[in-house]
């Protein structure tokens, strides 16, 4: 039996475990990346491990999230990360150099390599044939220290592409189509490989858009073949020597096959407040639009920006619409300026923002009250834009431009002929904003620079045999990490300060939660399906840990979040019978006994002491995860010599 692309890379990097779906495997990690919203905590964790130098082939610390310096907090965090990178052997991408995924694709990603990043959209690297996965900061810290990355061996799905995209139909529409087919939980436990003759028609930036959005499926990662298209991209970046051909075997076996005819697709749009709430653009024709945002790690490549500039050239956006443009990297911005496309963008009335994540994580450019905002981003969760009642839609850059020019949701096909955009044969290479680490012999004497906002990692407690605690919060399906630990310009500066950050925990769902959880001492949360979807931010586990949460019981979990809970020493459990969710009410007093025995058996009994109900729970912990929970989380487990 042949192997898929992902299986080939996994086989090359397998340290332990069997490549059987559902089994735990340990992988050697070649590269890591962090960004500043998650990086400070990851580097505090790495420092605690006592490892003198990173042991990966390459590790890069990016500054792209908390770039709005409205106080000392973000600047202090940037300085701390820069000093850590210099001392411990990481490259440091300065603020303004670009979004981590765009820059990594341009300058560092290599086909066939493994990459984990403390950002859920790290699978962008799959666009050039990397096995690239989002992870919690603690997992990234362990990998930097030379430890393995543990995952459950995924199933393999294949999307077979035929045909060719028509004008004004884009890779973003392909992403929205697969979300329409599978939903935001349809990829959980799977790696999605993109293949078929249609793949050859897609450029690397288009492939990267699709792998980036694969995160919203809940997939472990997504991956494209590394072929002549990949080779041309790497050569244009001056990195032809990094090319390696990669394809699946003709007799590879997949758990699911999905067919998409590119030539049959229409422009699509994801309605509030979920990326899988997908309809055709034409079905919403005439909906008034207040704001348009173009950029993010999904659609900020030079290819996307050149198309935007060509469509805007000689035109002016509607006076009632505000348009922002965020190039994905300094390279993209420089090349737009050099060829005159930036002038066309500015002349249209658009506002050009910094090469950073910006509005995607609520870091500025929030819409007006109740405003309709069309964004080329990957997420439209409620409140994520920074405006609680903002109505955010996800679209392609072409659909975004059409809305900016007409003031309403408009099928971009109505704009007329699509201008021809030609990509350059060589990109402008300038890595001056990527700072190398100090030589190892100089590193020992370097000082780590800390600001007063940087607080220690919250202390965790070993999981005991008995847990008696109140149900402090009951939530529904598809609770995102933005619900649990919101982002935005007002909150992100405190990602290094868990005590302060804790007051915002679950603020979207229940503003009283932090106070009630602290008063309870120890507590339990209950949720529905796909709990913890979205960002890889481990703060969605670390803050509940700080507030005393000892267990989370749900109908099902998102992959990265369940790993982050275990890393934090919080026990994730699921209902054996999903309908038992209805037998619990917020405020009930709950009891779980014989926890160690239950971990071994894979089942426990939850006693609702308020109602008298006994509810069966299930769990599936590996020996390593059981040991981590008993130790009080991954950091304490590593402290026992288990790197």
Question: Can you give a write-up of this model?
Answer:
By secondary structure, the protein is an alpha/beta fold. It contains 21 helices and 27 strands. The strands form six sheets. The protein has a seven-stranded mixed beta barrel, surrounded by four helices. The two termini are 34 Å apart. The model has no long low-confidence stretch (mean pLDDT 96).
Helix content: 25-40%
Major sheet details? 7 strands, mixed, barrel
Number of helices: 21
Measure the end-to-end span: 34 Å
User: In terms of structural class, how would the helical and strand content be classed?
Assistant: alpha/beta
Assess the beta-strand content as a share of residues. 15-25%
Average pLDDT figure:
96
Alpha carbon gyration radius: 24 Å
| Low-pLDDT residue spans | none
How does the overall form come out from the CA principal axes? globular
Beta-strand segment tally: 27
The order of strands across the largest sheet is 21-22-23-24-27-26-25
